[in-house]
Give the backbone structure.
Amino acid sequence: MKRLFRRPKMAITHHNRTNAASNKPVQDRLLDAAEDLFCEHGFDGVSVRDIAAAAKCNIAAVNYYFGGKDKLYAEVWRRHLLLMRQTRIASIDKVMSRSEGQPRLEDLLNSYANAFIKPMVDESRGRRFIKLMAREMVDRHLPQNMFLEEMILPVMTALQAALVRTCPGLPEPKAQLAILSIVGQLIHIVCARTMFEQTDNPELPKLDLTEAVNHIVKFSAAGIRAYSGGKTE
């Protein structure tokens, strides 16, 4: 049985004061309010009435602009996915154009890794997105394949093409596996850093993201070169 949770009236009042002072369009106010509430209480713990009150809008505005809570939830995600997709592809294109299509492998991986990490560790939006993602993984409400089609596939296609151009001997299937490995390492290091920061256990390392990214880049570049038949140092 799903547990229902209603946002305290005092917290909603805080959102009302914030949005009342804003000159943002109604759609943006609804998206901002919905994102905050979904992060804190999950999809089922938030009603349309809660969202409208937080955005200081009429309840009918949710249906008018988004067609209901399900589609509003998807649009909250779409804002994040669009930003991540654009940022990551831009990081790839920048390196490839700057080096006339033949960058150092480490430069390509470093540019992509930093573009991947930066939005996720942002003190405001990044932290909210991680909470949103954690809730979605446990209780799914996004349209099927939305994450895959709108973010993963476009970015993976761009990075795969760049890797193959950078390492001509790299088979495409191996490039795909290398990308999955890099992404897995980056996600894990972000999650581990968040967990480690929440404890005082002296046995846990203090994770420096710059150092961690440099390690992932060096480690991954060595593996990719081994796949492509080049040197691994």
Q: What stands out?
A: The two ends are 54 Å apart (CA to CA). The first helix runs from residue 9 to 20. Confidence is low (pLDDT under 50) at residues 1-21. The chain is about 75% helix and 0% strand.
